[in-house]
## 1
Amino acid sequence: MGKKSAGKQAAGTPALTALDRAGVAHTVHQYHHDDAETAFGEEAARELGVEPSRVFKTLVVDPSGDGKHLAVVVVPVTGQVDLKAAAQALGVKKLSMADRHAAVQRTGYVPGGISPLGQRQLLPTVVDSSALAAETVFVSAGRRGLDVELAGADLVELLDATTAEIAAG
């Protein structure tokens, strides 16, 4: 898998810039995003014709409950995040989902386009360990309708992430 781009429109997201700077092999996949769609990860899997277990969603969580100390969890779109398991992996007592506005402010991305890569500030991150089982995984490339495919191990390394079984269902 080499570096590929889906064209001019795909270039320029902070996620893709981070991958290029790191020299990580990746493939950019662009697809039509339906503005009425709210299940962004499932839409990506369907539109790209990829097994949903290989498509991961990026969720911003709030360990402190005050919006000041956020973290990121990356789980397959086929399930939900187990907040208790994710809290344990992050070394905190409990987690809640972050306020959408806080997530946008801290990551620089809009919901449905939040990439774990190229965020404004690298937040503590836990990636579900299933990302290491497939040859490659897909995550948002920083825009709705744009995903990037890369090795799960590369994703974990770039994010300086912890891996744990944090997916439920």
## 2
Amino acid sequence: MTESLTSKQRAHLRSLAHGLKPVVHVGHEGLEPPVLGSILEAFNTRELLKVKVLENAPEDARETAGAIADALPDVHVAQTIGRTIVLYREDPDAPEIRLPG
């Protein structure tokens, strides 16, 4: 997979994520190891997920998204809108989402 997503790929992932609910919440403690572990665990069962950055979090959603992408291997930020982050990581064994060329 490419190092970063193209705008067409991000648009495709945004459309797939539209109906998803956030599965991980980042609160007042910020991006601590348990939160990163929860995100990794969520990627065990899905390739696309939403993370909600709560109002009491120390960083805003864009900063948090960048920190997640830096901390976790092969995780891409598909979208940051408001306090919601859409993350994508291709399943290494059986990818279900086909990204446009």
## 3
Amino acid sequence: MYIYRTEQEHSFSKYYLSKDEIGLLQNGDIILRHGYGMASDIIVQSLNEKYDISHCAVLTKEENQFNVIHSVSQSLSDFDGVQTQSLNRFINDSKINSLIIVRYKNPTHTDNALIAEKAKYYLLKKLPFDNDFNIEDSTKIYCTELIWRVIKDSYHEDIYKNLLKDKNRKNQYKFQAFWDTTHFEIIINHQLRKK
């Protein structure tokens, strides 16, 4: 029953960003969402954060079109690991009013094209999805780890530094670092529509 209901909700979903919202996006922005399916719902419930988020990706822009680069398990995708997808498809696979788009406040105060380029570097490496969720192992990578590594490689800043201080392994999966205004500016937050 659960799977049928989720599939029905997904098939009738017409979720999109407005033209004005698309105009706000920049190369290297981070997009967060709550996806469809049991795995996404379990992630949201177990993390129990301020916003209901189960997945994230890096926005890349080429020839006036946005795509995303993200890491997905083969159990949820046709392809395992770091991959690219159109922004429209990514949004279509998102629960309505779940999108949050943030922009990293990089120390050089320039655009974040470097984040997009570093994400493409990981895409070319064809890294598999890290089902062990081991942030210490760079041969496999999960979605939040991809963003963490891209920012760390690009700007030498550890956005998880405060989350990992208490050695609680669960903190390395959390999305709350992405709405921490110390490091990120929230550009779009559709979750506020739910309130």
## 4
Amino acid sequence: MSKKIEFEYEGTKYCLEYSRDAIKVMERQGFDLNKFMSQPMTSIDLAFEGAFLKNHRNIKATKVKDIYQALGNKNELANELLDMISETYNSLFEDEENSGKNIEWKTV
């Protein structure tokens, strides 16, 4: 999970990114990656709000909406959010490097 979106709004610097915990919160709120393009009104709102959870958890929803309205190139923003979310989902299936705790398993 290395991609981030950075910007400044009203003198405050923001760094938007996702974590597995942020995605879990989004899913509990109704986010479904498979419906991202078929239900863009809901999906983009949840994706944008969810991007604040990792680094700016206490930001008010009204401020998030104001920031979204002020950002340009929303089509590219939606694509970047989708890429970042996908990257987070893909991280579920990667083994932790150098953890020494990977248990070998087999089907019998």
